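ugh finaly. both done.
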Amino acid sequence: MNTVDYSLNDFLAYIMIYAADADFVITPEEETHIRTVVGDNAYNQMLDLFDSHNDKETQEFISMLRKQYVNEDSNKDLLKIVKEVFLVDGYFVASEKALYEALKHLV
C-alpha cells in the first residue's frame, strides 16, 4: 500500500470516518462534522477507501499514515479531533470509548 498518494487531510478524513463508524453507523451529524473539517472531496474519497478495507487493512493504513503524519506533538491534536467526532452526535458509547482507547496506542 503506497501512502505517498495520501495527504494529511486524507489521513484526517480516514481516521475521522473510522471513529464515526465505531458504533457501525455514521450519523448525519458525524458526516456533516467530518465534511466541514476535511471537505467533501476528501470525505467521499476516504469513505470509499474505508468501505473497501477490512479491519486489518484499516489498521495497516492508519499505522502507515501515522508514521508519515503523526509525531509526539500532533498525537494529542489527532486524539482531540477523534474525540470530537465521537461527541458530535451527543453520545460517547462503549464501542466509541473502546476505539478511542485503542487509537491511543495505534496513533
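ok and the 2nd:
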Amino acid sequence: MTSKNTSYKVHVQRQTDAEISDVNIEQGAMMVSDTGLYMGYNGENVRVYPQVGAEFRNYLVPLNITVAAGETVNLSDVGYDLANLIRLSYNSTGGGNQNMTLNLPDATLPINVNRVIRFLSNGGFSSNTHANLTPINGQTLDGSTSPYVINKHYEGIQVWSDGVEWFIIQKKA
C-alpha cells in the first residue's frame, strides 16, 4: 500500500488530476487541478467546481419573520445583514386591511452591493394583509420609490442590488 502526501489549508496548490488522486487533501483545504477545484471533506477529495452529480447540494436556511399590522421591519438592522432568504409569516388579528412595512437595506452599502435577497410569504397572507417591501429614502426598487406589495399566499420575490438601487429579478405568485 502506497501512502499519500497531505495538502494543508495554508497552501494554494495547482496540480494535475493524476496528482490530486495521489494526495489526501486536509479537511477544508482546497486544490486546483486541470479540470476543477477539489476540497478535503470527510477524508475524501471532493470536486466542488464544476459541480457534478450528487457531490453538489445547495441549501437555503430562511430567516423567519412574523409580521403584524402596523409593524415596520428595517432590513438594514443588525440581524438581517446576512439573510438571503426571508420567510414571512403574517400574524393577523382583526379584519379589514392590515399593512406592515419591510424597509429594504441601503443598496449603496458595500455589504449590499450585488446582494440577492429572497422573500417568501406563508399561507397567512391574503388580499387584506400586505407586507410592503419598500426602498429606503432616495432609492428605488425596479426604478420606483413605491413599495412592492406582498399580499398573496405563498408569494415569492427575489431582489438584487447593483450598489445604487434594487431590482426585482424574479417573482412567483
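summary for the 2nd one i guess: Helices lie at 17-21.
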